[in-house]
């Protein structure tokens, strides 16, 4: 009796405790994913070798353009490339050799050391949507993004358990002048969150501002010795490297900060309409970009990027979450691993105008593919809508919830004695049930992924509660998370110094809106 | 000039032709998927051997129950098993040995030979949802299913390009007596479609009716020599085989028709809460079931089934499209291949009450997993809603469209000269674009998967057209397909004989509604 009563109290105290647990606001962040599952390898060795040989042929025969960048041409000439105007032709083997000084994995430090991430190897780091000029939510519809929206997204990313990274331009704060908004965005990432973040790439001077602000946040010496930012360097596919992107890359590389070298591919427009042809071009472009990055500073961290979408040949519209993009990404992952480089792809890709079933199918296709393709850094892992034109608040929390699925898939299968569960099978036997057995009681809390959003209730309960669809549940969750946001602590002197830097920089130049 | 003009006519005649092509109703059915991609192998050899050893231990030490089935107990005793009441303990190695006479792949014939499917090997055959007592659509909401609904689903499956199979109990026609509805369902599959279908398993006499009606449709001799039906034999997990299911299995096996032997697992309730433990039980159950099937008739076609969901440990509700179910299915695929048996899993699994984003995330997770897990027969590949309680019309066409993604993913990467596209990359060069190049023109029609449902239009066009979400587009597509349905031809004498059989059978027994 006493034992039963104690057990009842022990579990029953649990009644209130469990309710509290369910309603408490978690600002826990899961550790970045360490895969305990294999990668999906879609290309055999013969196919990989053909593509690698062809990419070298492209670099050697066709070459790449470095536009408006005499310093880059000089670096290439000194390294042994053939220069013809802005065209750089790279002798077979040279680009791959130059890439070999880039690290296969590196740590990106966060100001909260518990939030630092290791990019590369078997790891997967998840970062939110990047770049949309518009935002959308249920209350306000589709509209130009503002700094207020930006701050809300940074708060949501901070509150999202399965997001490891605060991202960069989560949306474009269009109410701030173009030449100053990077300062406000960086300040937001640095003060409203303690997760790692990305630097500005829209101008070399803004990249330098990013490095300088990190000097205030982390200390200048720390920044010179460690990587505290990733940055997104898009290649103007096909085969073109512009001076703005390369100028920013030069700043980051010189300061030992990480560059994602990403071909920007709409298949059939910026690359051949075939998967193998696209992979060939992607590899040639990334090798040229990373090689250049290593010419600037050997050993600087670089990431093999692949932004891949298809095209609707009827309308010319880009399409997302399609099988051809998946095939390219699987192959690109293999090519990246053979270069010993960390690999980046995209996550919540979709073409839908609403966070509806189309958006969810396309996004789930991309997220599953990203995990299986061995991606190390997944940009746009939540919140992307309408081909990247819109950052959507509801979709942000819907996708962020699905990122938990990736964490649990990556655990793979535990095959130890507890995983084998032979005692449970013996205990329950034919016709029994497992709910009450000792093994279930010992393991149920961690056994299954549990959504923080989706509805598993019986039909009648769900109907009584107003027949809420995923969109409505997501609206509620956005509101809940923003209402319960608590700013992480930051040394007031550092916060003040950052604000002063931003104010001074802003005062030093006139507003520019283009 | 003449050449240009001819070319223009040639392509321009295409203007009207292309429009006609876009609006024409296709009743084309794609060939079943023949994978040109590897399977995803999540377990290493050591883990597989542990699970296989443990499954044999379960069969030998714990055993399985064959309930109310003296004939089964006799068969097992004669084969060398240890019988204790209804408990059958199977000596180590015996079940696997008995399984070895089942074919690794087999043809299921359709009455239209072009629609016959090969189940096993690298193939994937897609069949619709099975079993829901309710249906839902935008116009009528959620309601009990009727025979009229059933017929509509058979028509939709017939009209769906990516569905290879007409399925079985696509929904339960609850307006027809329980003891007679199998007759109407079979007649529907046989006359409204020419795709392959499934037989009844709710009573051995209904299995026999299924065989007899196939005798009329295909000819009795053909049926005895060929497989013309699959049937779904659920195991009452854990480790229990009831007399109704086994009685139906006996009828099908004796007549050389295919049985899917499927543990019915809600993880944590009918199986251990761990992945490896669930796999152990699944393997033990399938081996016992297929072994029994082979005791009835060596060489009869059998399929290794796995119906796996998780449980929400808070509410006890089953959950679908979860990572743990995926891990089990990946592992089960490997175990099936090591038994040389075709493998079945489920497709459009979801727990949502509506065909909303939750439903789409969960379904896409399951569909992608099914392709990668090496599934050979995917039941419920479209239309499943609310944990299988509802067959949803809109979701049916939404999911059926996504099945095209699986077809295109399965193509893998073409690495021939055309796939390599080196001429295209040389032709376009740095800064160019591929839309007009020769390689794109030659390949664009087949290069990319094209949805028949999803919206890729620019925001403004989409807004002008009424801001339709996926659900609305799906409502339109259901209506379009049903309005354009054309019944496939059938020999009038056969149609008459089938109707007469159904009428006679119905007249021979009183209605039963339970």
TrEMBL record, chains A, B:
One of its GO terms (biological process) is methanogenesis. Gene3D superfamilies: Trimethylamine methyltransferase-like. Residues 1-21 are annotated as: Disordered. The keyword Signal does not apply. One of its GO terms (molecular function) is methyltransferase activity. Keywords: Methyltransferase, Transferase. It is an enzyme of class 2 (transferase). The keyword Transferase applies. InterPro entries: MttB-like_sf, MTTB_MeTrfase. Its EC number is 2.1.1.-. Belongs to the trimethylamine methyltransferase family. This is Methyltransferase.
């Amino acid at each position: 009796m006493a034992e039963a009563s104690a057990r009842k109290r022990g579990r029953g105290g649990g009644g209130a405790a469990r309710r509290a647990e369910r309603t408490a606001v978690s600002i826990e962040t899961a550790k970045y994913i360490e895969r305990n599952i294999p990668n999906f390898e879609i290309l055999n060795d013969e196919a990989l070798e053909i593509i690698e040989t062809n990419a070298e042929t492209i670099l050697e025969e066709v070459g790449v353009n470095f536009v408006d960048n005499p310093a880059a041409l000089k670096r290439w000439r000194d390294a042994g490339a053939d220069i013809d105007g802005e065209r750089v032709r790279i002798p077979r083997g040279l680009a791959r050799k130059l890439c070999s000084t880039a690290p296969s994995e590196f740590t990106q430090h966060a100001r909260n050391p518990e939030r630092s991430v290791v990019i590369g190897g078997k790891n997967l780091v998840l970062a939110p949507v990047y770049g949309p000029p518009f935002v959308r939510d249920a209350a306000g519809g589709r509209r130009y993004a503002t700094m207020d929206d930006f701050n809300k997204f940074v708060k949501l990313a901070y509150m999202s358990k399965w997001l490891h990274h605060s991202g960069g331009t989560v949306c474009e704060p269009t109410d701030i002048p173009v030449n100053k908004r990077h300062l406000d965005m960086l300040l937001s990432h640095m003060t409203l969150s303690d997760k790692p973040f990305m630097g500005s790439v829209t101008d070399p001077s803004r990249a330098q501002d990013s490095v300088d602000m990190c000097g205030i946040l982390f200390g200048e010496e720390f920044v010179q010795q460690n990587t505290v930012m990733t940055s997104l360097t898009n290649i103007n596919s096909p085969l073109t490297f512009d001076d703005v992107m390369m100028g920013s890359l030069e700043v980051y590389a010189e300061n030992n900060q990480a560059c994602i070298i990403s071909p920007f591919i709409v298949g059939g427009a910026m690359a051949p309409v075939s998967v193998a042809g696209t992979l060939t071009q992607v590899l040639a472009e990334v090798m040229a970009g990373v090689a250049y990055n290593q010419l600037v500073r050997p050993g600087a961290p670089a990431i093999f990027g692949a932004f891949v979408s298809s095209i609707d040949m009827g309308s010319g519209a880009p399409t997302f979450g399609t099988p051809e993009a998946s095939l390219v990404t699987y192959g690109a992952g293999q090519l990246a691993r053979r270069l010993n480089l960390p690999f980046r792809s995209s996550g919540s890709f979709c073409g839908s105008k609403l966070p509806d079933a189309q958006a969810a199918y396309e996004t789930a296709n991309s997220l599953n593919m990203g995990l299986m393709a061995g991606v190390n850094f997944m940009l746009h892992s939540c919140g992307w809508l309408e081909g990247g034109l819109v950052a959507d608040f509801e979709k942000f929390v819907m996708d962020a919830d699905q990122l938990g699925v990736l964490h649990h898939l990556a655990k793979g299968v535990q095959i130890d004695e507890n995983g084998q569960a032979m005692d449970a099978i013996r205990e329950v036997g034919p016709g029994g049930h497992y709910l009450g057995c000792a093994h279930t009681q010992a393991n149920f809390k961690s056994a299954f992924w549990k959504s923080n959003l989706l509805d598993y209730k019986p039909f009648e309960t769900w109907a009584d509660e107003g027949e809420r669809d995923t969109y409505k549940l997501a609206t509620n969750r956005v509101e809940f998370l923003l209402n319960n946001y608590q700013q992480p602590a930051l040394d007031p002197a550092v916060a003040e110094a950052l604000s002063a830097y931003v104010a001074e920089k802003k005062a030093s130049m006139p507003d520019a809106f283009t």
